[in-house]
Amino acid sequence: MDNSCREYLFLVDFFMVTGNSAQNLFDSVMGKTLTMFMKQMEEYVHDCYDSIAIFLSIHIIFRYRSIIQKRNVSGLDRYWDALLKILWPKFEQIINLNIQSVRDCDPSKLGQIDVRPHYITRRYAEFSAAIVGINQSFPNEHVDKILGQLQAEVENFILKMAAEFPQRKEQLIFLINNYDMMLGVLMERTAEDSRETEVFKDLLNGRTQEYIEEILSPHFGGMITFVKDCEVILERGQVDSLKKEEKRVQMIVRGFNSDWKRALELINQDVMRAFTNFKNGTQILQGALTQLIQYYHRFQKVLSQGPFKNLQIRNELINIHHVMVEVKKYKPTF
Fold this sequence. Notes:
By secondary structure, the protein is mainly alpha-helical. The protein contains 11 helices and no strands.
């Protein structure tokens, strides 16, 4: 590039030519050399399936082009255009092959799958982070579109792999571990507000919330269902219909009183074993315990309504502050 710039500027200055005349003179001097470079590039690209190398080459051209524009040299414009016509189709071809490969992949043929992040999703995350990171300097909407297609196929593939687990809880753990891993890689190497990052944040938050409901249900499912049912009834103004729920209230209160501390410990152990990212696991645990406090608060609020006001069982309710004190024992110290 430097030699070509010097040659072009010398020709313009020495022969006092501009425009097409300068371009033609430059081509007559440097044409064979540039043609040789293009031929070598064509031969290399033909057998190359390293999409990151191809994409890096494209962005090197963008940077070189920016440099020679500042030097007011237009002699290499045709050369850059010719190189890009070689590189862009190859880059798209490789990405499309990756998309098709993910689409055709059958999870049942991948051997045993556990709930930890899968190597395919890690490879995708690292690849996507590399492309997104490079693309940030000279953003290209077409690249974003192609990556979006690849991301959609990877999301579908993750769901297909999750479906291999028989229990919904295991499916959610697998999804959360994979989304968290991909999000971590992307946030480390790209802008925090990139489109890919935002997508996986939403997916992670959605599955995390579903998992929280899933782990609370075995221990506090009766109370949670009762709260939701009664809130709907209260919204409709059908307070009198709550009278038939008095026995249900007694069972819920006494069941909660006898088992809530043990349930907290079981939830803590369950969450800490499930997630490969300790930080993510502690956040999920805190989210679950916070959700439990909210449900218990809503439960007490329901019991202060209508026919529940005068129930003797209300005197047996554990104070919510006592529950909160116990919950704080599981708060991380780091």
